Amino acid sequence: PPERGIQYLIQNGFIEKGNSIETQALNVARFLLSRKGISKQMIGEYVATNHSFNALVLKYFSKEIDLVALSIDSALRKFQTFFRFPGEAQKIERLVDCFANRYIECNSSENNSLMLSRDSVFILSFAIIMLNTDLHNQTNQKSRMTSQQWIQNLRGVFSEGNLNEQFLLDIYQRIKSQEFKTGADHVTQVQKVQS
């Protein structure tokens, strides 16, 4: 499990030992973000695990990612290049929750022309992830979501009221034209070579 790997790296000096739990979590987060070759899948599993230390690592992990002045889908795209979303819905929810907090933090009211609440950013982000899966999943080639279905699905779900249709259409087109991809890592490259 990733937890044992992180513990091993700390014990053997690959990750600097912190003098507090917060410092240790920050050191782990920076290590996960800066080291090339670490499995993006294992990073996603580790930071999304429901343990207090992992949650602290996720908090510091997200604070190291600059999302200022990015559209919500561009920010989410940048955020997820550092890990692969786990398959478990609860873990995805933890990651999206952390993303929503960070997005609002980076795009305060003077920078946020949409003026979305934190909860609305969470809902829209989750919807974008589902749209990406729907549009790019190889097993779902016959019944892909249309742009009108996308807009219809998001009617009446935001506290601010319905979002601008052109704004939603722009997101739809960007997701349709370019799938969310996790950044490359050594593990993925080795698996490709082996297959």
From TrEMBL:
<feature type="domain" description="SEC7">
    <location>
        <begin position="2"/>
        <end position="178"/>
    </location>
</feature>
<dbReference type="InterPro" id="IPR023394">
    <property type="entry name" value="Sec7_C_sf"/>
</dbReference>
<dbReference type="InterPro" id="IPR000904">
    <property type="entry name" value="Sec7_dom"/>
</dbReference>
<dbReference type="InterPro" id="IPR035999">
    <property type="entry name" value="Sec7_dom_sf"/>
</dbReference>
<dbReference type="Pfam" id="PF01369">
    <property type="entry name" value="Sec7"/>
</dbReference>
<protein>
    <recommendedName>
        <fullName>SEC7 domain-containing protein</fullName>
    </recommendedName>
</protein>
